[in-house]
Design brief:
The chain has about 140 residues and is mainly α. It contains five helices and two strands, in the order H-E-E-H-H-H-H. It has a two-stranded antiparallel sheet. The protein binds zinc ion (ZN).
Length: about 140
């Protein structure tokens, strides 16, 4: 008969607690990634990209400066297209002020390369579905 002392039970409980904690943390992280990227439409931003630019449909947001029009940027980079709010649209920071439409066009022309290695592209992902979910005109 297998006998288990108190220390073995403690180890089992510890393992279960750790597993539960890891699952909760993953769910928590996933639920935080809920804001849409106004450039590519990916719903994977941890916060609103600009103070006054929140939910889709985005439509055509025109040319920068987005900071002047939409307020303080998050400085977050999109995991999908790589656009960084407050950098890519800021001439003084990046040396060029790229519009969402122009960045999106180049990103699509280059094959929609997924930017972030640690947040992999979802299975069955389609750029056209992503754009339409965010209300972004699909110009290509
Ligand atoms: Zn994006």
């Amino acid at each position: 008969m297998l006998q288990r002392g108190p220390s073995q039970y403690n180890n089992l409980y510890k393992l279960n607690d750790t597993e539960t904690e890891m699952t909760l943390n993953h769910q928590e992280q996933t639920s935080k990634l809920r804001f849409y990227c106004p450039c590519c439409g990916y719903r994977g931003l941890g916060q609103s990209p600009y103070e006054r630019l929140h939910d889709p449909p985005f439509g055509d947001l025109g040319e920068p400066s987005y900071i002047e029009r939409f307020g303080y940027p998050s400085h977050e980079g999109c995991h999908c297209c790589g656009y960084q709010f407050g950098y890519d649209d800021d001439l003084s920071a990046s040396g060029s002020a790229k519009s969402f439409a122009e960045s999106r066009r180049r990103w699509i022309e280059k094959g929609c390369r997924w930017f972030c290695g640690t947040d992999p592209r979802p299975e069955n992902w389609k750029v056209s579905d992503q754009l339409s979910a965010a209300g972004i005109p699909d110009e290509i």
